[in-house]
């Protein structure tokens, strides 16, 4: 069994982030602030040697990943491996919709009008379930569907032959995806009602069949 360090960076700021819209599987480009933020993160990680790098196949993740890898001075990989398995949650009918409005529609029928209310009473997983329930097309991912996909994504990372015991691995990810990792593997040590900042770092120790969060929303 090997253990490696997964450096999970939330992508740089996008226009949908400014407009406070859900962007799941949809795309909006990095803003100038988002590009500069990614460059700032790149400087902080410039001397860390990564044996592999991964991101979703969304442009915001790929752009952020390339900025970080291009600035790396430790002889890391040149390009990230991309996979749809590593995408953000799919919000179905509510892709691109106003974030507070969407979570109101999902949670209000249960007496929980905000995302934070749902998470405080239940979990991020329950929020996913409520959103699928509210989706008139029922295409949004519920918690089981989301983790079926992401378990495959984590196995995709684990299976990389370039990763050895003690190595560092880069993953460019998304806000809700980072929160979901922290909820599942953080052992209750972190406040998952607090969204990770764009460009922030969350660290996990990954083994063959488990993971543990060792730092969250580091800026």
Mind explaining what this structure looks like?
With 219 residues, the chain is an alpha/beta fold. The protein has one domain: Phosphoglycerate mutase-like (Rossmann fold, 3-Layer(aba) Sandwich). Helices cover 38% and strands 16% of the residues. The protein has 8 helices and 6 strands; from the N terminus they run E-H-H-E-H-E-H-H-H-H-E-H-E-E. Helix 3 links the parallel strand 2 (50-55) and strand 3. Helix 2 (32-44) packs across helix 3 (59-70) and helix 4 crosses helix 6. Pfam families: His_Phos_1.
Topology overview:
Elements: E1 4-10, H1 15-18, H2 32-44, E2 50-55, H3 59-70, E3 81-82, H4 99-107, H5 115-121, H6 124-134, H7 143-158, E4 168-173, H8 175-185, E5 201-206, E6 211-218
Summarize the structure.
This protein has 219 residues and is of the alpha/beta class. It has eight helices and six strands.
Output the CATH topology: Rossmann fold
Give the assembly state of these chains: single chain
Unreliable spans are none
Number of domains: 1
Binding site for substrate: 10-17, 60, 88-91
Protein name: Histidine phosphatase family protein
Pfam families: His_Phos_1
GO cellular component, one term: cytosol
List descriptors:
6 strands; Rossmann fold; Histidine phosphatase family protein; fructose-2,6-bisphosphate 2-phosphatase activity; 219 residues; six-stranded mixed sheet; alpha/beta
